[in-house]
Amino acid sequence: MTRNNCWLPELNEFPQTSFTVASYKEYEASLYCTYKKDFWSNDLFFQGLKVQVRKSPIIDGYEESFVHFTCKNYENVQNREPDFRRCERLHWIRKFIENYQCKARCVEKCDGIKYWEEPYKSTKRFHFLFEEERFLVVLEKREYYCLLITAFYLEYDHSLQKQLKHYRMYKKAEDVPFGGTSPETPSTTSR
Predict the structure, then answer these.
(1) For every residue of 60-124, which 3-state class applies, written as one string?
(2) Is residue 88, in this structure, part of any structural domain at all?
(3) DSSP H/E element including 148
(4) Residue 44 domain-assigned?
(5) pLDDT tens, 144-160?
(6) Are 98 and 78 in contact (CB under 8 A)?
(7) What's the CA gap between 162 and 105, in Å, rounded?
């Protein structure tokens, strides 16, 4: 996708054509620097609340959230596998939160970030989806802050369609007047 002065940076691709442990460790170190800069060194806010990441437990010397944002099977500490689609986009997470209201057409065929809220247990989650890039970021509201829950590339079409369905449902509900019904909702009153 061609970007013209867009807030969304290019992918941070793994630089080697052949994967070695040493080359990945170097790449992982650069990713960790990005993670620390974006989520530890510089405060990030959403709706007036500071965005925080999970700092524990520590997995192989890294915070749980860093492992989650860069690995496929991060729960299996003995066999964690890099997810290069997540790794390449790690530096997008902060940009999504900072620019989710952007209306500029700086990317061909860009409809901007689709934002919606969903109830989750006793709180709510905020979703940021850049459909054209197939990337999703999710925050969860806590009492005094927002927790960055996840961010990942939607590899499969059905996964993208599922997220778009959630977005459309949210937008449809927004359009319904308080106490009213949507045009598609049949009336329950008799005439």
Answers:
(1) CCEEHHHHHHHECCCCCHHHCCECHHHHHCCCHHHHHHHHCCCCCCCECCCCCCEEEEEEECCEE
(2) yes
(3) strand 145-153
(4) yes
(5) 999 999 999 999 999 99
(6) no
(7) 25
| Nearest by Cα to 42 from 34, 67, 102, 142 | 34
How far is it, in rounded angstroms, from Cα 35 to Cα 16?
Answer: 21
CB-count burial class (<10 Å; 0-12, 13-18, 19+) for 87: buried
Digit-coded pLDDT (tens) for 8-62: 889 999 876 777 788 889 999 999 999 999 999 999 999 999 999 999 998 888 9
Residue 154 belongs to some domain of the structure = yes
Residue range 89-135, pLDDT digits in tens: 999 999 999 998 887 666 566 678 999 999 999 999 999 999 999 99
119 by Cβ neighbours in 10 Å (0-12 / 13-18 / 19+) ranks as exposed
Structure tokens at 67: 């492992």
**Residue range of the domain that includes 157:** 21-175
